[in-house]
């Protein structure tokens, strides 16, 4: 299996770490190779060179039954396409697992004619192209009609029971949480611009943006909008720190312009945090507006602030949304369901594996 380093930030890392935490690597005999560590250019060159050498050695020694490549867009795709080429040369089937909601835009606007031909070739030669949401299947087939596409959602650890709804505080205080990359395409600046309208109605609200990226620009905009006092920027969080933020949140907001299938969004739903999101990418495949979450159009406007105020003022609405969201995540994105889909793909490729036993939370690896 090939992907990003376990200390890197982003959705692919979150998925890979979740596989590791539940014991999948040991049970299925997975050898994991990182092609990206998220550090400087020199380190990155060493990382990709080392990864390609290691993969070549494993393939040449006939110690690999299938190569499972986790890829995003742009640089991630170019790196992983080299791995796909190696697998093809050694006649080992490869699964090309796409995680990026930007992939169609990358193909249409980030590639010239030769690069597009290479993208199509990589997708066409794959034993399976895995996408994380049903609507991405059509996007891949528009790029390469001969691609053999399967849909496998991102797995999330779902507790046995839905956590109780956070009690309302006497002072009216509430916490709105964002988790992920802090950049414009995630709608984070739209969320800052929505803060004044929310605070004019609910002045005790705190906004927590946990992630990395354009933090200084966000601080500057918050100061300009007069809302810096209500903003917290703890940086990127993982593991216990992320769980703590989710447990302390009254509302999770993801006003993104693109999304494949947000891991943080699924985690919020599994933790029983009511959600507001945008109907982009794979989000409408598992969220119906007003059922599992409130959906608002991406971009500037009054809809985002209005939805935040409506949710924070209506405890019954929050309770209903979180109950429906928890039920859907437990049904469709729990580890047992997702790993069963992966196992079926491997079996079709001649690599039969036994059912994976998901390790209990107490036994997880940090």
Automatic annotation (TrEMBL):
Keywords: Glycosyltransferase, Transferase. InterPro entries: Glyco_trans_4-like_N (IPR028098). Pfam families: Glyco_trans_1_4, Glyco_trans_4_4. Residues 25-154 form the Glycosyltransferase subfamily 4-like N-terminal domain. It comes from the Bacteria. GO terms for molecular function: glycosyltransferase activity. The keyword Protein biosynthesis does not apply. PANTHER family: D-INOSITOL 3-PHOSPHATE GLYCOSYLTRANSFERASE (PTHR12526:SF510), GLYCOSYLTRANSFERASE (PTHR12526). This is Glycosyltransferase. It comes from Pseudoduganella aquatica. The lineage of its organism: Bacteria, Pseudomonadati, Pseudomonadota, Betaproteobacteria, Burkholderiales.
